[in-house]
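Appendix C reproduces, verbatim, an entry submitted by the partner laboratory led by Prof. M.T., so that reviewers can inspect both the input and the predicted structure.
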Amino acid sequence: MKHLMLAYVAVAALVAALLLPLTASAEVQSYSAQYVVMDGEVSVNIAIGLGGNVSRFEWLVPEDAESLDSSPAYSEIVELEDSRKVEFSGSLPSVISISYSTALLLQHAGGTSFFIADLPATGANDVSVSVTLPEGAALKHSVDSPVSSFVPQTGRVSTDGKRIIVSWDEADFVNGNSILVMYNTGAENGVLLPLLVLSFLVVVVLSIFLYRRRAEKPLADSADAVDDVSALTKNLFEEERKIVELLVAAKDAELWQKQIEISTGFSKVTLSRKLRSLEQKGLIEKIPYGNANKIRLRKAQGA
């Protein structure tokens, strides 16, 4: 496990260095960054505290940075080979704010999502960083697991009721500036659940279709079954005989169970018992349709 975590840290440092080579001037006294992970991108809000009278300041942002905004307004953006340089000039305030969105801080592999960033070497004594995971996301490993879901280690893991928030301060970055957070979004379940529902619906529709085909299929021996009523009813009790006679007279020799109940006046308990007896004797078959049953006459055995 230890070797695996070291590998994660090494990969995080390498990828972050390639994706986000941020640098800053020595005037930086405080640094605060909030990363909010959304669907496929990260919203970044940075506050940089400056010391002394600063008239010129530069900051690097990822090459794919969108919706770039700042306070005060930047004076120029310079396109570099793998990043953008945001330049500020004039009488600058004590705090510069920069916000943008980027997709380069997110990676996905083996069903796991990774937030990877490398903080700038600002030399600031006051550092505050937080990563807010997407709604419904969970850390890859539980907080009490021997394998951590984030680098560097921190005990500041909280939630706003919908999202998990991991936070760090300057004391957490004594061994490096790389940040790694491993999490699962539950997207696999989001895809699997509709598939399961669809499969269930297909089974239900197919079952209904087969039942209807079975109900509509003409019995080869229907004519023989109704030719001789006395042969069908000669060994039956009176209640059973009454049920069979109703079926013989019915179209296609079948009726809904509720129709038989109304026509005979039998209680539900009595009718169920008589139908079960006729079914055991092979004279009828019961075809379920949801919560209702259709009763169909069969040819009497040995008639």
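The first strand starts at residue 28 and ends at 37. Additional entries are available on request from the coordinating office.
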